[in-house]
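Input record (one chain):
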Amino acid sequence: MNLFSSSAISSAVLIGASFLPRIDVAHAQRRPFDAPHAQDGVYAVDITTLQGDCGSADHLTISVSGGRVTAVGDTPIESSGQINRRGIVNLTFRGVDKVAHATGRLAAGSGSGTWSLPSLHCAGSWHAVRHN
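The corresponding structure, as predicted from the sequence alone:
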């Protein structure tokens, strides 16, 4: 997948999504210990573009540990922000010259929200379901 093509931008956004250097195990281990959250796990994320030319829809798999996104499929994405203990999602995804934002809520193994990629004037929605 070419992360910076217009049809793949929405994938990167989520949870970028959402929505950019790879997060590897060594990077994740440098973070301070975070106690497990009810939202931790692996999620299938469907991304829909509602505004702009960033592709109509895409799908990602993300991993959440301690409320932080630790991997975004096989895409080279760096994430910051968190999913707090109440399930509130507030994430930023970065790469090269693009910054995407995702907000929303997770509860009982699923959730939804919105994403935006201001530099490309794109925005949309996301829906996530945790794999059991």
